[in-house]
Amino acid sequence: MNSSRKIVILSGNAHPELAKNIATWLNLSVGNCTVSKFANSETKVLINDSVRDVDLYIVQPTCNPSVNDHLMELLVMVDGAVRASAYRITAVVPFFGYARQSKKDKTRSPITCKLVANMMECAGINRVITIDLHSSQIQGFFNMPVENVYSEPYFLKYIKEHIEEKGKSDSVIIVAPGVGGVKRAKYISDKLGVKLAIVHRANKDLLLSQSFGNLLDRTDIETFIVGDVSAKIAVIIDDIADTCKTLKLASKALISKGALKVYAMVTHGIFSNNAIDIINESPITELVITDSIPNQSNQDKCPKLKVISMAPVLAETIRRAHYGESLISIENYNKNDLHDL
């Protein structure tokens, strides 16, 4: 990469605060771009600064409350930049919408995540930077580089500094809220050198088929804890908090099995419907998320909610991508080591 080429950062309406924070870490300012709607709700974009022959980074998580609008804003901004002769366009998509629709699990169901990847590629995006993809294999949907930045190092640091009892490394147990999250949770438990527990929720239909119908009214068979959590501080690790019903059920089960406290650390805080009320009513002491999705209003409603900023590591990822440097050590990156452009 030609390091003399200028970097320009633009933002849509999804998360302008994150874009500003990333630009600040790079000693830059966010470029002037107007993103609005026509009277009939069509997306309207006007890039007011020159982007000719620049290394362009568009910060736009495709997140709630308007996933489709934010996706369309990104695509239209990219098209405008392509037609304005930007040298290279990188989409910085901290939360990748539609990532949970990445497989054909029913006969006529679409693989919408692949469709979105095709749309982004056709629009003219040359690279994608994201945080904790729901499934790592989604990177294979793209015929371009995809930099998947991980939040685990930040979670590890938070656990050591704010949750783990001083001098008692075995005071914590890491918990996977389901079988699908075991790999993510095991990474953190291995790094901390602590035990791993798994929350398993029984399938009522399966129980019925096995003639256990008389047990269906018993709540203790709906949620099982694999592992001993008694007298431990349980830390649930997951990538997405949407309705938060799973977190509430898991936390109640952990407390019932003797856990002293329950913390949850989740990368993407979607919080659909009454999710914040569910968290407030749950036994969870603290729910730690990243700023991949804007959640200022939810922080005001939920004192349990703590936000870790990913702006420093995203800024460093941008810097390394610009200079053609390796990203292999990005998980060991310390925000105090950020280099100037």
From TrEMBL:
Domain Ribose-phosphate pyrophosphokinase N-terminal: 7-124
GO molecular function: ATP binding; kinase activity; magnesium ion binding; ribose phosphate diphosphokinase activity
This protein's pathway: Metabolic intermediate biosynthesis; 5-phospho-alpha-D-ribose 1-diphosphate biosynthesis; 5-phospho-alpha-D-ribose 1-diphosphate from D-ribose 5-phosphate (route I): step 1/1
Stored CDD domains: PRTases_typeI (cd06223)
UniProt-recorded name of the protein: ribose-phosphate diphosphokinase
Keywords for this protein: ATP-binding, Kinase, Magnesium, Metal-binding, Nucleotide biosynthesis, Nucleotide-binding, Transferase
GO BP, one annotated term: 5-phosphoribose 1-diphosphate biosynthetic process
